[in-house]
Design the sequence.
């Protein structure tokens, strides 16, 4: 590894240069810095902590591609991507605060323990001032708490659970991705107009934190439009064959099946549901329908034809016509040969937002960065005008309601945008019951 | 001295010195050099080395001595972790009560599981322990979320009651685990020339505990109780025929090794106060089996070495990405460097599992006694002793068992 | 009642997969005395045989279609599979659509070769080693195999649909005198169950009625005596290993339309199939099949909403719970032999 002296120990080293050659203890320090991993050399190190093994490895790989692209753009290489469309013009393409951006990578394995080990090694060994990435909420919450303790900034990657900016929110953590509540709020009106307000829903829910918050969010917002929830059944993570959960659905008197599943579970449960003929079935005199609250294009590929016509929500899609999205899709597509996923988009944007905040704050000091990000309003990053709310560090922006495309033109063209739900409709008060019980605490600069 | 014979004392002193000077030994490369990637002397990884060392030492007391292969030891580590975090949430951030309660809970659970599972032996025992551990994992991940934090893991909060201590610090943060005021995440840096060494309070606490457990394990191995356990391994039936009931001995060994696992769990949350459910999944139990066999089952030092190797690969190899490789080989002529990157790339970064798998296979194929046997072979090579076969076997290698086809 | 029948059907299907994998594991264990932790990987490799054949059949040449554009606004590239160009769109399309059943033919030789290479190259050297070593080396092999697959196919599930003829569901209810549309069961799952029965039957018939099988069974019971009779039992056992690999592979091939394959599906099935084998009784072939179906059905029942409502989380642990109960009441599983794997 040839990242030249950029760790916080760089400081000590410069002090030690005088005595270099003579291997004598020259300095013995503890907590001599203004904040954790203050970059003192000509470079700054960011930590990209993404799943590289385990079920979300492909999303992790896409996140890493996005980060590499972001680093290029920040350092003034490539075509600049969204830097050109970003409403804040603080970034000059000369790194961050004139320091060249370097990065280290790690493997979260989609396990909270491993993710924290990897993040700690980035902070303790490589001197990273910011950790970002991840493809599941458990990992995001765990790493966010770690960054709070260590005194570095955490820019969450793909995490959709309400808890990340709800009961487990932290002052040093920020989330650009949307959440379960927003999915529910955006989906409900579209579902009402497509399927009517007199529907009986049956939920299958992944039996862990993200599943719980998504089930609650969808339940509450669909019940608000008049739907009735017949039953909600928890399914084990990685159940594989969902047939024994699918077959009771038709007998239950429900006419809509909501699959609160993500990743491989979503692919399998949706495939099973289609195989068991749910899509052709009739119930209560209506056509039976399936809803998948959180769509991921990468995962949806695994379900093949089964996703056609199924409603869901997504944070971003490459086919969005706005300038920012186009610019990002162009530079990503030119570099890698295929369009970016929503995971790639949120990670790229998070890296840019962090760099911009540092530039505006004029320092890497976490508390100053937090201040710069709080209540920051921006545009041109693909989701329209966006607000980073100070109360919970959640981004508020438009949410996409999508549908599996009937006649895809390419293997990437799986989702079509049904509606862009305006931000007002998905905004909630910071003390909304679905997000209750948390508090940011105060920002931590660490050592 | 210390009730050890000369041989064991030498071993203990070697381990003591290794643990003491680990911050130097694990950072052999200057911080600026390209090889600094391979430095492992940062607090988190050093702590992991000794903590998983404790876990493996404990596992070895059961597996190495009695031959009972438990596939559910991670459950004890997990329960210990949960108990430790709860202690920190409810009582105090001092790590001593947390560690004690971890050992206690792990001991109770292992008493229960051991009492049931030890009714069977061989693979049936292994599957029973696996089943119990998987049940613990599945429930902790899902329905027990209110107690265990589920997928996220059990973590500290700003509003924890913490009777003997504060819920949050003056700055509005969650307090840090400490030992009578010495914070576990405290570090001191030492720069010498191009080298940098980090001394971490948490590491030294864990190292002291590890040395104590290691000492205890040596005494146990050499005690009459240890002898009894070995007798169970070599022929339980014959032992039973002599009128000895071996169950209390095996159960004691099971509980002791469960308590070691709980100790490891308690230390883990003392260093990093979050307990994830994945700690208990079957692959985590498998990992400690692999550590023990990889290092050398039934040997004293083997499990520690095995634990070190696996954790090193997991943490160091997985961080080498394509960019790093390109920098390494940048001095090569064009074409050759990209060729080398292409060759090496599948084995590092996201491919670190592949390297791990290959190493498992190589070690088992060529070093049936694990790393310890490798070290012994090298040692013999140096001493130029050409004693043919039948080495004295001071570490009590497992005897090859006949397989069922015979 | 209809709900119960449905869950039995679901269980039979899951049980078929368990039974096929457990059958192979038991064959290897019973003949070679080797605990094969790479057996799940063989199941996964079988599934990827289907994926690979599908990929081979859809190998395409690219033409540029100026009338359409791709996502970057460049002229779109249109891919036409070679088989469609060679055999015409109809025959070619049919081959692609039927790639999963066709993959059976493709998988048999491949899995046989993989099995032979594995046994001769690696497992052979571990006959006399402790079971712990066997577990470690085959576990290492399993990791290597799945990482290789991940390297080439990625980590996300890959869709491999069944032929159109098998899409849709069969109305069981009418057959049994229920109202129409109460017991619907997908055709492909019926195919899978029947296929599993045929494979299981074939393995049993092979062991029961051929001379080769007789020798193998004799070898399983007393390897030394058979060897003393001048029979090369090792060679036969090697062939049995290949057969076990084929069984696992076929189970994987046919399972792909039910579960989009991914690289870690083998590990997911491995632990469960070990539980199945042990519950059935180490070394007992009928035991493995019986316990496979039993656990599959119990798992389905435990997944019913009515059951979960009473005992939350029971669906997560039912298999392990049953395993514990059975092992405590029947020391050697359902049909285990005395003295096997107890030392």
Sequence:
């Amino acid at each position: 590894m040839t990242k030249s002296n950029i760790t916080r120990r760089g400081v000590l080293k410069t002090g030690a240069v005088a005595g270099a050659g003579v291997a004598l203890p020259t300095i013995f320090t503890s907590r001599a810095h203004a904040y954790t991993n203050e970059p003192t050399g000509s470079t700054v190190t960011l930590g990209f902590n993404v799943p590289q093994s385990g079920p979300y490895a492909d999303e992790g790989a896409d996140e890493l591609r996005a980060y590499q692209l972001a680093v290029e753009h920040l350092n003034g290489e490539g075509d600049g991507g969204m830097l050109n469309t970003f409403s804040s013009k603080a970034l000059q393409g000369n790194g961050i605060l004139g320091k060249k951006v370097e990065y280290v990578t790690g493997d979260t394995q989609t396990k909270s323990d491993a993710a924290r080990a990897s993040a700690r090694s980035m902070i303790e060994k490589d001197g990273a001032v910011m950790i970002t990435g991840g493809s599941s909420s458990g990992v995001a919450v765990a790493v966010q708490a770690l960054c709070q303790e260590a005194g570095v900034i955490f820019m969450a990657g793909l995490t959709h659970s309400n808890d990340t900016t709800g009961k487990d929110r932290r002052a040093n953590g920020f989330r650009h991705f949307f959440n379960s509540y927003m999915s529910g709020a955006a989906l409900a009106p579209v579902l009402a107009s497509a399927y009517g307000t007199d529907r009986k829903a049956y939920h299958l829910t992944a039996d862990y934190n993200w599943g719980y918050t998504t089930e609650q969010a969808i339940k509450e917002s669909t019940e608000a439009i008049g739907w009735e929830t017949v039953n909600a059944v928890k399914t084990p993570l990685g159940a594989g064959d969902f047939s024994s959960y699918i077959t009771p659905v038709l007998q239950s008197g429900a006419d809509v099946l909501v699959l609160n599943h993500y990743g491989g579970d979503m692919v399998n449960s949706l495939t099973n549901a289609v195989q068991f003929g749910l899509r052709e079935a009739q119930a209560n005199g209506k056509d039976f329908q399936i809803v998948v609250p959180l769509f991921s294009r990468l995962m949806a590929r695994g379900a093949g034809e089964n996703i056609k016509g199924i409603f869901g929500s997504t944070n971003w899609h490459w086919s969005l016509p706005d300038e920012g999205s186009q610019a990002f899709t162009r530079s990503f597509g030119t570099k890698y040969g295929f369009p970016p996923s929503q995971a790639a988009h949120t990670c790229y944007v998070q890296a840019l937002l962090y760099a911009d905040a540092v530039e505006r704050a004029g320092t890497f000091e976490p508390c100053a960065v937090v201040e710069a990000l709080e209540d920051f309003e921006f545009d041109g990053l693909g989701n329209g005008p966006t607000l980073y709310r100070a109360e919970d560090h959640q981004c508020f922006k438009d949410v996409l309601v999508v549908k599996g495309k009937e006649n895809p033109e390419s293997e990437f063209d799986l989702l079509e945008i049904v509606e862009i739900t305006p931000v007002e409709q998905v905004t909630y008060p910071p003390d909304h019951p679905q997000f209750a019980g948390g508090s940011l605490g105060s920002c931590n600069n660490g050592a | 001295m210390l009730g050890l014979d000369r041989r064991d004392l030498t071993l203990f002193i070697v381990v003591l010195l290794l643990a003491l000077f680990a911050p130097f030994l694990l950072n052999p490369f200057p911080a600026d050099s390209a090889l600094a990637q391979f430095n492992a002397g940062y607090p988190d990884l050093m702590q992991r080395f000794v903590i998983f060392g404790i876990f493996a030492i404990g596992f070895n007391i059961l597996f190495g001595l009695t031959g009972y292969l438990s596939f559910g030891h991670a459950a004890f580590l997990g329960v210990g972790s949960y108990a430790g975090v709860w202690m920190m949430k409810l009582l105090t951030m001092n790590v001593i009560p947390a560690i004690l309660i971890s050992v206690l809970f792990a001991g109770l659970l292992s008493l229960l599981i051991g009492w049931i599972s030890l009714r069977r032996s061989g693979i049936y025992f292994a599957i029973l322990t696996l089943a119990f551990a998987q049940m613990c994992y599945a429930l902790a991940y899902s329905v027990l979320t209110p107690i265990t934090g589920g997928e996220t893991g059990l973590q500290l909060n700003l509003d924890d009651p913490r009777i003997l201590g504060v819920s949050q610090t003056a700055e509005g943060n969650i307090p840090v685990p400490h030992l009578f005021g010495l914070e576990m995440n405290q570090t001191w840096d030492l720069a010498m020339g191009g080298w940098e060494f980090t001394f971490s309070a948490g590491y030294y606490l864990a190292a002291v505990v590890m040395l104590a457990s290691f000492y205890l394990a040596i005494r146990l191995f050499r005690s009459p109780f240890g002898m009894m356990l070995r007798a169970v391994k070599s022929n339980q039936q014959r032992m039973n025929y002599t009128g000895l009931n071996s169950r209390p001995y095996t159960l004691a060994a099971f509980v002791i090794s469960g308590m070691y696992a709980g100790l490891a769990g308690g230390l883990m949350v003392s260093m990093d106060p979050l307990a994830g459910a994945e700690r208990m999944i079957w692959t985590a139990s498998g990992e400690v089996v692999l550590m023990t066999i990889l290092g050398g089952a039934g040997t004293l030092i083997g499990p520690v070495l095995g634990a070190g190797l696996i954790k090193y690969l997991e943490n160091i190899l997985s961080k080498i990405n394509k960019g790093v490789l390109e920098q390494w080989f940048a001095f090569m002529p064009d074409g050759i460097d990209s060729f080398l990157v292409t060759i090496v790339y599948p084995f590092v970064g996201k491919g670190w599992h592949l390297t791990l798998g290959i190493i498992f296979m190589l070690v088992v194929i060529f070093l049936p006694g694990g790393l310890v046997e490798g070290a012994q072979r090298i040692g013999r090579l140096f001493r130029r002793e050409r004693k043919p076969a039948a080495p004295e076997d001071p570490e009590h290698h497992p005897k090859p068992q006949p397989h069922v086809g015979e | 009642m209809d709900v119960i029948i449905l869950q039995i059907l679901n269980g039979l299907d899951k049980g078929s997969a368990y039974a096929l994998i457990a059958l192979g594991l038991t064959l290897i264990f019973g003949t070679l005395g080797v605990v094969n932790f790479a057996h799940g990987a063989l199941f996964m490799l079988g599934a990827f045989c289907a994926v690979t054949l599908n990929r081979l059949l859809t190998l395409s040449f690219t033409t540029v279609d100026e009338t359409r554009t791709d996502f970057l606004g460049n002229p779109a590239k249109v891919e036409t599979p070679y088989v469609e160009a060679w055999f015409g769109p109809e025959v070619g399309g049919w081959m692609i659509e039927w790639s999963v059943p066709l993959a059976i033919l493709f998988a048999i030789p491949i899995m046989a070769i993989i099995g032979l290479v594995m046994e001769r190259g690696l497992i052979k050297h571990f006959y006399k080693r402790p079971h712990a070593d066997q577990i470690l080396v085959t576990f290492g092999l399993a990791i290597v195999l799945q990482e290789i697959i991940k390297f080439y196919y990625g980590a996300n599930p890959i869709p491999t649909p069944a032929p159109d003829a098998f899409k849709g569901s069969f109305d069981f209810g009418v057959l049994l005198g229920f109202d129409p549309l109460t017991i619907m069961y997908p055709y492909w799952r019926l195919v899978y169950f029947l296929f599993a029965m045929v494979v299981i039957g074939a393995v049993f018939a092979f062991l029961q009625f051929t001379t080769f099988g007789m020798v193998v069974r004799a070898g399983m019971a007393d390897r030394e005596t058979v060897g003393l009779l001048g029979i090369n039992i090792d060679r036969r056992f090697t062939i049995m290993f290949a057969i076990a690999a084929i069984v696992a592979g076929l189970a994987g091939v046919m399972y792909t339309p039910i579960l989009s394959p991914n690289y870690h599906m083998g590990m997911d099935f491995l632990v469960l199939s070990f539980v199945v084998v042990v519950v059935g009784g180490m070394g007992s072939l009928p035991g493995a099949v019986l316990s496979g179906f039993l656990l599959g059905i119990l798992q389905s029942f435990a997944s019913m909403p009515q059951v979960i409502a009473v005992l939350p989380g029971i669906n997560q642990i039912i298999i392990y719970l049953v395993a514990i109960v059975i092992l405590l009441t029947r020391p050697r599983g359902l049909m285990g032999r005395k003295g096997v794997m107890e030392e």
In short: The two ends of chain B are 46 Å apart (CA to CA).
